[in-house]
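HOLO CASE FILE
Compound: protoporphyrin IX containing FE
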Amino acid sequence: MEAIGRPEAGGNGGGYLAERGWRSWAFTLDHKRIGAMYLWTTIFFFLVGGVFALLLRLELLSPQTRYFSNHAYNVFFTLHGSMMIFLFIIPAIPSGLGNFFIPLHLGARDVAFPRLNLASYWVFVAGFLVIIGSLVAPMDTGWTFYTPYSAKSAAAVTTLSLGLFLIGLSSILTGLNFIVTIHKLRAPGMTWHRMPLFLWSMYATSIIQVIATPVVGVTFLLLAAERLLGVGFYDPAKGGDPVLFQHFFWFYSHPVVYVMILPAMGIISEVIPVFSRKPIFGYKAIAYSSLAIAFLGFLVWGHHMFTSGMSPLANAIFSFLTFFVAVPTAVKVFNWIATLYKGSITFESPMLYALTFIFLFAVGGLTGPFLGALATNVQLHDTYFVVAHFHYTMMGGTVMGFFAGLHYWFPKMTGKMLNEKVARLAWALVFVGFNVTFFTMFIAGTRGMPRRYAEYLPKFHTENVISTIGSVVLAVGILVMCWNFFQGLRKGGPAPANPWRALSLEWKAASPPDTENFHEIPIVTEWPYGYGTPKA
Amino acid sequence: MDNVLAFGAASGQAARVDAVFLLILVVGVFFFFLTQGIMIYFAVKYRRRVPGRDNETPDIHGNPMLEFLWILIPSLVVVAIFYYGWRVYTDQRTSVAGATEVHVNARQWMYEVKYPDGRTAINEIRVPAGKPVKFILSAADVLHGFYLPDFRVKMDMIPGRVTTLWVQPDRPGSYQIYCTVYCGTGHSNMLARLIVMPPGEYAEWVEHGGREGGEAEGKEPLHERGERVVKGAGCLNCHAVEGKEKIGPNFRGVYGSTVPLADGTSVKADEEYLRESIVDPGAKVVKGYPNVMPTFKTSMPPDDVRAAVEYLKTLK
Ligand code: HEM
Ligand SMILES: [Cu+2]
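Model generated. Tokens follow.
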């Protein structure tokens, strides 16, 4: 982005990190510090959730339960799924990287409501503390909490649903804050069509968060009311309807998969042009497809319920609409690939993860039609095929996008450079490990292995052993990556203000940025993708 | 006949689902290699060869024609896939006349089977080949699933509702049934079998009052028959014989032992205690275990109960 004025001097003196002591964090109103706290917290839950994943894989080495009881296995997949979804993947990119970079991208000094921002972090903390409290009687319902099982279970479902209510509240507050920020705090000259695509995707994400999250909040409150007061919303024994819960749940949880994926797509749209030295191809198509996905995402929740006894007509309508989410998604992929055309491409770790995103997300995306088409959905629903599909989109997609973002912005956030060799080694391990772990699940699922099975028939043994071996490679890759981050933090060389020679405004700020981001608010005269020209 | 390959279809209907699967697979593999091939080709071809030479890439911002095409083509492809998947699904859901009807009621963690003529069974459904079958599904406690992978169909079983499922079993054989909707601790042990019999054999079986052929009956030692009964009724989903304890008490060593009860008393596990525990499990609840076991009073004939007790006695 051609802005008036040169990159700001300074940096590496500590910038926003200069102040020390816990109060300087706990009471900070600086969006960068709040973003950093979110990142630490969510990455912590990613690692804990990953440990649970490894325990699941360990148990699945043998067809009969060997290391844990069936109940323990069920608790593990519930904790794994809930942590990964509610405490990691939903907040990580929006509240972590989003908080950090939305104001910087906009050329603003902070978000619109800094106090609300801090409040939303502490509401989040309150939420997960309540959730940890629920571990006295750990949940074994799966992350979907289907009634009537969850209404009857002896586990601390009430506590957990109140915790998730708080997490949802935090998510709504952050979304509101971002919407206002993007409307109101754009630097002079930054029209909507000069915004980096990360902002477009964060804008679409925030809209979904604000509209959909209240529904799940109410759903959880009704569940708590049912358990505490005995009101029959979902339990047929009390006059309720268990399928109603599924409608509520998926009315939120389907749009929310776009809360998970859209921010990652935003990161990919930033990284690809920088490392190809080419303007992004089809800027408007990418920007508006984010909004289209956000809109269509609200119309397709029924595709999680094709076998729940809905009428064939309703099923047909949901199936038809579902297929149309594929179109804006495909458009983005085509545009990213077209951006590479005649570029001058280098493969630093952010780019490696970005290309990996496209590759793995293509597998996840192209296995979607098996589940969207009615005939094959009825076959594959609730089997390992689904587990493979969503790990390809969520982990192969979102998590790879998150890794791309972490590597891309590490110099900006910390003022330190990462060891590129170690980063590539970690990438290679993650790539191989991921595919070995999850591709085998497509095969197991097609052969009929149901999900959430602590014990399985011996005919699925081979797939499960291979998958477990893959998960170990994957885990080693992630550990190497974390080690690299720590080494970078401790003794990485000083980062220049703009190591990747990128044009968006965050790179005009120092590395790490000063508390006020920009001493002088930049004035924007162009879009941020003028790569390949001499001025870049 | 277990589904060794993914595509071991057990009926014509399953083969039609496989055709949809194959179509999507071919389309998907095609687009995967097309897009990823181009991506890798670009990445290799346009990698930066001369360090620092990166200011001469063309200033391309988009291409309306391409943009239009890659909205149009995927749209057409997905509509085609939708239509095909929907057609096959509709045929599979359309009710058929003259079907053998079977009621299946799920509970944690077993399938209770009832035939219209009053016969009952647990975890085993027998039907004649060549005639459509209609499963009338319900659930007693929580959600369950009814998944027949060899027929490529499944349906949720919902408390307070009735759902239905049709299959056309063309080939005799024994087919796996899985519970696919998570239902608690015993979920992954909630298995059953669909046994498709040649029509003649089936008629004979019905004539024998829904029990297996008379020949073996007399000769088989009682405890062996008991073992079959115990395995078939799904007792082992909750009771272990080897190794780790499941939901209920272990079977091994139970006979002859002194069992502590929930009300603080205890009882010696003799034949009568074992029998009562099968037909009226709530009567004496073992200390430390939830009272969740269903009664087998109607579903297990007295002869079978006796055989089951004999089998338990062999587990020392
Ligand atoms: C570290 C790599 C990971 C491995 C090896 C892994 C493995 C597994 C396994 C084995 C299951 C259990 C399947 C079953 O029994 O039905 C599972 C479930 C699940 N995973 Fe992962 N996973 C990983 C990462 C992730 C990530 C990054 C996410 C989300 C962003 C995620 C989300 C989920 C969800 C939502 C479930 C479903 C839980 C449920 O059925 O309630 N996983 N995963
Ligand atoms: Cu079940």
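CASE NOTES: Confidence is low (pLDDT under 50) at residues 1-7 of chain A. Residues A 50, 53, 56-57, 77-78, 80-81, 84-85, 89, 142-144, 387, 391, 394-395, 399, 437, 451-453, 471, 474 surround protoporphyrin IX containing FE (ligand 1) (CB under 6 Å).
CLOSED: yes
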